[in-house]
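Project outcomes to date are best conveyed with an example. Our students and postdoctoral researchers have been running inverse folding experiments weekly, and each run begins with a structure described purely in tokens. The record below, which covers 234 residues, was selected by the lab manager from last quarter's runs and is presented without edits.
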């Protein structure tokens, strides 16, 4: 984000690896718990110092490293470069656990990226927005080799209600809690036909009661409909 990198923080540290290493080392010395880091591949397509960055962070005492397979310039566009994540994982000088992140939107993708790179773990981010059951799907697929059936709209609504309840407990302020969730609502219902009017109502709702009333209407109209989450955009 511009407000972060313009101060030399966040991904901007990829432009100054010695500074990144020094900061990491000071943090490791200052605390008694393991310190992990997460970074992108680099700043631009022509500047991807992730292999050197990983070695420097390891030397600084970082206990594990998560890598998002995009550059800062990419933001969230294009495809994550898992080949480069794999290069870091399989580099002979890298001994710390490497966690791969980027474009994990299905159980099959999770299995593919894990097998392709040999990373120690996977990190799921935007793929779970509006689809929090993705973690359960991945676990089930890894354990059985079978895909779980996708939920229908009625089932999704029940999951969303639980997220609303938990979010309101966390935020304590109802409007703030609903405001935070607005950007997630549409992600729960990709590709529903003639959904625009209800989508707008959801995005304008200001309290939990209003949201629940809209969700009940969605169940009445689309209850057994099964959204295509596998082809939904991030």
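After processing, the design step wrote out the following sequence:
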């Amino acid at each position: 984000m511009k407000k972060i990198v313009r101060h030399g923080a966040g991904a901007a540290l990829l432009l100054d690896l010695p500074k990144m290493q020094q900061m990491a080392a000071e943090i490791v010395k200052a605390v008694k718990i393991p310190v992990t880091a997460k970074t992108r591949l680099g700043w631009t397509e022509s500047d991807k110092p992730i292999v050197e960055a990983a070695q420097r962070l390891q030397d600084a005492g970082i206990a594990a490293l998560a890598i998002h397979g995009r550059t800062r310039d990419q933001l969230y566009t294009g495809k994550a470069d898992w080949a480069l994540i794999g290069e870091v994982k399989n580099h002979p000088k890298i001994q710390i656990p490497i966690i791969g992140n980027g474009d994990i939107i299905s159980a099959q993708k999770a299995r593919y990226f894990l097998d392709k790179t040999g990373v120690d773990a996977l990190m799921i981010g935007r793929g779970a927005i509006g689809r929090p059951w993705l973690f359960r799907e991945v676990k089930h697929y890894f354990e059985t080799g079978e895909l779980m059936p996708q939920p229908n709209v009625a089932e999704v609504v029940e999951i969303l209600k639980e997220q609303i309840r938990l979010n309101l407990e966390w935020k304590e302020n109802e409007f703030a809690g609903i405001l935070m969730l607005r950007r997630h609502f549409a992600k729960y219902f990709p590709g529903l036909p003639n959904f625009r009017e209800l989508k707008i109502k959801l995005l304008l709702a200001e309290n939990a009661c209003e949201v629940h009333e809209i969700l009940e209407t969605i169940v009445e109209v689309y209850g057994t409909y099964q959204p295509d989450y596998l082809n939904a955009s991030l």
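The chain has two domains: 2-143, 153-231. The first strand starts at residue 36 and ends at 42. The training component of this project remains on track.
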